[in-house]
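Might you be able to consider the sequence and fold that I enclose below?
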Amino acid sequence: MLHTHLTTLNAVSLILETLREDGVPARELLVGSGIDEADLARPDPRITTAQEARVCANALALRETFGLELGQRMHVSSYGVLGYAMLLSDTLGSALELALRYPALLGTLFELHLEVRGEQAWLLATHYRSEPELAVFNAELCLGSLKVICDDLLGRPLPLQQARFAHPAPVYSKRYRRNFPCPVSFDAVEHGFAFPAEWLRRPLPLADRLTHRAMAERCRQQNAEFTGRQAWLGRIRQHLAEQLASPPGLEGLARQMNCSSRSLRRHLHDMGSSYQALLDSLRFERAKMLLAEQQWPVQRVAEALGYSETASFRHAFVRWSGIAPSHYRT
């Protein structure tokens, strides 16, 4: 899977903050992500969803309920100008419609829908697009954060009528009631939660139409810029993905992208990445696929990824995942 989407460092910052309270050092959570602690202070903190996923996987390895815990901490203030524009909306319904209009700013890994079915309104999350091993984590995080956002917008808890998840019930399923105080079911067709449709018409306490219009326009501009960056990053990753056996180097990739190496390096830096970080990310994704789906010896996997020495590949894989490739396969 090519991770062509960008996101912000908000979730990563919250992960570090949450587990720092338990004495977990940041370096342990950032291993394999290509993110440094210094990156958290950047004025435009963009990273790829692959980098965020690595940090999430590191956190999940320490605590299996972390998706639910993180969802409770993702307040509307975590979404920058989009969150501000939502707070200034007239009603809960108009705020949610604004958010769903700009999924790139929301940073979701799902397709989100708001549907009214009779007297119920459903917020639905479908078509998940990330690592399968993080599917449950991301569903918990997505719906949990949406519930918290609704509570923040209203200034009071949104009364849920039911919640459902497409995955089987985990061993800690009773923990779901803290995030979703309503009947919760599993093995459903889609992820989502329901509330009385009349609440979509509830006025928001911080509504301000004049300022809202200005913020909504900023959302439109930011979304256009953001999706443009995503498309450009997708092209870069596609070029690299086709040349993993013989990577072109920064200058060679720049020629393929019809720009200077200096320009390419600057653009990647502005998106919170680098040539080496993208190459490592693609190599890691391909390595996991080959180790899981092919019975190739580790030496052949290393060659397919452009490593002249198997030892170098083993060292890199341990740096990315924390375990040796042979252990990952078993």
About this structure: The CA atoms of residues 130 and 288 lie 14 Å apart. Residues 209-241 form the longest helix (33 residues). The chain has 16 helices and seven strands.
